[in-house]
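Thread: Modeling a multi-component assembly for a lab meeting

Hi all, long-time lurker, first post. My supervisor asked me to bring a structural picture of a complex we are working on to next week's group meeting, and I have zero experience with this. I have the sequence lines for every component (568 residues in total). Could someone generate the structure of the whole assembly? Inputs are pasted exactly as I received them:
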Amino acid sequence: MTTILVFVEHKNGSPRRASLEALGAAAGTGLETVALVTGAGAAQAAAALGTHGAKRVIVVTGADTYSPDGTAADLAAAAQANAAKAFVAAASATGKDLLGRVAGLLDCAPFADCTGFKLEGGAFTVVRPIMAGKAIMTAQSDSPVLCATLRPNTFPVVTAGAPAAVSQTATKGGKVSVTAVAAKGDAKLDVKEAPVVVAGGRGLRDAAGFKVVEDLAAAFGNAAVGASRAVVDAGWRSHGEQVGQTGKTVAPQLYIAVGVSGAIQHLAGMRTSKVIVAVNKDAAAPIFKVADYGIVGDAFEVLPVLTEAVKKARASS
Amino acid sequence: MRIIACVKRVPLTDAAVKIGADGKSIDNAGFEYMLSFYDELAVEEAIRTKEKHAGSEVTVLTIGPSECSKELRECLAKGADKAVILTDANWASRDARSAARVLADKIKELGADVVFCGRVATDRDQGAVGPMLSSYLGAACVTDVVKLDLGPTGGTAQRETEAGIETVAFPLPAVITCDKGLNEPRFAGLKGIMAAKKKTIDESKAADIPNVARVVKMELPPPRKAGRIVGEGAAAVPALMEALRNEAKVL
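Re: Modeling a multi-component assembly
Sure thing. I ran the full set together rather than chain by chain. Output:
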């Protein structure tokens, strides 16, 4: 039987949500879904995948130290051994890194950061924004294995099914190894994966001005801080938080832009967010053209009040 | 050290996009071009690596039209030694696999200890060519690098992921894709600009490897539903909360 291979990332045995979304999208094709997990805690992660769409799970052993090229070789081998019609992963830093490697090993076309993925009449169709979202490409592949990463926060997680059959395979090993990971501050969410993003721009005056943005993000509990290019270039925030054409493209449930004017490069990076809120002093700022809801006003007056309102709403829900 | 920087010419990031008449392409009429932002970082890192390792040579490699000699000349002015254009009239629509294979063949021919690429080209947003190259070359690869320490036989690099900063050890030969934060690209000086006039830009036709990624449709993103200003200042917060809770249902 033909299968679809999914790479599932996990943190100490707990699968990442973006990977479960990819698993859900794969299961949605109706093909037999084979998940591959690697690293310390892989067996624990494997046990959780059957109820999220996996029929079978391959646990890679001997890979407690992560090797990207080793993992790519394991994935390419698994794709071939299981007659996979497609290989998918989350469009995370790790997933995007693996995509090119695996596509190269299988000599197939890669499709990064897809927002649409389906199998119809035996052919896969993918949808992916290009030029940071200024155009949307629908494509098909003439390669034997469709290789794709799927944009986080775009595909639903499936919660049904029975425990998957788990098998083990030894890693092929690689030349490159991750020797250390310096974790971010306690449970800080990544701007690409967070369901809520509160982004700040030059309207916050200086680096210290981001306090109001951080406070609002903290009030949500599930929010990440984002930043415009201008403030990253000014050194107020790290590049990891930059949203836009030379940063990250995000699609959260709720995007709140504070003091962000809305340059075309920034809009490209966040315009597929489900709901956009803009707070800006300048009523003519381009950000209001894409916002669902706008407040014309000073961030330092509006945000503390909004933060309190969000705290209250969360306490009462 | 034999160093190659792979670069791509892309439309300016503030370019407005129009869809081609066939409904499957971008209309590139009127586009102005630049080197992809991250490729500037790749060129800079290549030159810095040359400066640190005596006897090194930097070649800048691209697939594109002859006109991109303009961008390559700038790389030469900054300190690259040679430039190679693999010419292709349909360069903008060449898929990642085809590009990676053509580049890999040229890199094998030229020989390289380290290949620098940008993290992603800002037109197709794939970020795939660098790691694909490494698979075709059988070379090590580290992507999205923000800090690099390169020795004669290998090195360590740092990259930013959702989990934090990864430290990665790798041997040479290697493909390194460069992310913002790795360096600040220099500007070409007058001396460099003069010197660049004497450097050669080698042109040869890129091999025709047909695309396997087939574009079915190209369209502009759907316009967002018109929004509204809920009010002014802090007094508008209750109206916003009401809209988020009951209308948008995101709270």
